[in-house]
Amino acid sequence: MDNKTADIIAAGESRARSLDEESLAWLLSLEDSSDGENELFEAAYRVKCAVIGKKVSIRALIEAGNACAKDCRYCGIRKSNARIERYTMSAEEIYLAAVAAKEAGYASIVIQAGEIESPAHTAKIEEALKAVSALDMGVTLSLGEQEEEVYRRWREAGATRYLLRIETSDPRLYARLHPADHSWQRRAGCLGILSRLGYQVGTGVMCALPGQDAHSLARDILFYVKADADMIGMGPYIPHHDAPVPEAPAFSPDARLHLALRMIAATRLMLHDVNIASTTALEALSPDGRERGILAGANVIMPNITDSASSSKYRLYDGKPFSKGAAGAAESLKCIARRFARLGEKVLFNERGDSLHYAKKSGSNQ
Ligand code: SAM
């Protein structure tokens, strides 16, 4: 490893939020499997262990529906994809999935779905949240852009966290990947509203997008700092065979994986105390992708407990791993815990795993 790389890594490890765009871009440009890249992962993992511990927080992911009003040009469930069968879980089905999650050892769930803005959808999610609140679990919503009033109703009904990826902090790149009626400004504005309403706010981007370079990704990390994010959920962009956005020829699956891992590590060197997810898309690129995400500085995993018939329709990109459903959730969680134990990491059964950053800034424990 050269001196410049060593100096940047040491600076990030010793002081949070201290690296500039140039330094972050340098780390993100390290060569796959090089000495410098390994040192970066090791340093980010040291920060994770020192600040958060050798612990992995868990959330059960419920993919509550693939109907979507958005037409993001990279996404398999975008509105104009007529080749997929649509499904929507009822409030009761969402509640029953949360019960199954609780029985399996989860104290937190993530309810994710395509983006729908309608009074019926708002009311259904509200009803589900009210029922789930009796289970005393941490609840993350990932339901896209909504009006402030909708976010408020869901917060009052029991949601504590909201995950809304900005997808890219570059409005021009965003415009190339989305139709003209999709607004980067609205998406960014939603993050501010969510924060004001007291949610633990999560955001993130896709890495290895066509037209994205290391400087753009470096600015994504600076965007997280500016947004004062409590949670980060990022992953590699993976092509979908039916999507209009093509595969960027420059990236092999392995290069996508490495770039996404460097992005996790560089984010951890900047944001020492936020929750960072090791996401499903990493697992899609490598069977041990989730573990590698944790060893690069992430501290949260979100195993999918959606029933397999629905999960097979929630196909955002090619090769997305399908859930085996809630029935096997307890067994599969024990298996995950054993895999992490081999790395010396403890999976936190029955613990919510709230964001340390959020707790510090609000002085609260939700
Ligand atoms: N509707 C919600 C929203 O807009 O945030 C959540 C559902 S959306 C399908 C969840 C995430 O999937 C998006 O934020 C995006 O980053 C990711 N995604 C979509 N297509 C993808 C692809 N081809 N590769 C990797 N991730 C993708």
Tag the structure with descriptive keywords.
binds S-adenosylmethionine; 11 strands; globular; eleven-stranded parallel beta sheet; TIM Barrel; alpha/beta; 366 residues; 45% helix
Provide the fold topology.
Elements (H helix, E strand, L loop, with lengths): L2 H12 L6 H8 L6 H17 L3 E4 L1 E6 L25 H14 L3 E6 L5 H15 L4 E5 L5 H9 L4 E3 L7 H7 L6 H13 L3 E4 L2 E2 L6 H13 L4 E6 L16 H18 L4 E4 L1 H6 L3 H7 L4 E2 L6 H4 L17 H13 L4 E2 L8 H7 L4
Bound molecules: S-adenosylmethionine.
Radius of gyration: 19 Å
Q: Which residues sit in consecutive blocks of at least 5 with pLDDT less than 50?
A: none
Shape: globular
Ligands, ions, cofactors: S-adenosylmethionine
How would you describe the overall organization of this protein?
With 366 residues, the protein is α/β, with parallel strands linked by helices. It has a single domain, classed as Aldolase class I (TIM Barrel). The protein is 45% helix and 12% strand. It has 15 helices and 11 strands. Strands 1, 2, 3, 4, 5, 6, 7, 8, 9, 10 and 11 form an 11-stranded parallel beta sheet that branches. Helix 4 links the parallel strand 2 and strand 3. Helix 1 packs parallel to helix 3, helix 4 packs parallel to helix 5 and helix 4 crosses helix 14. The longest helix is centred in the C-terminal third of the chain and has 18 residues. The chain is globular. The N and C termini lie far apart (43 Å). The model has no long low-confidence stretch (mean pLDDT 95). The structure holds S-adenosylmethionine. S-adenosylmethionine binds next to loops. The site of S-adenosylmethionine has 20 residues, from loops.
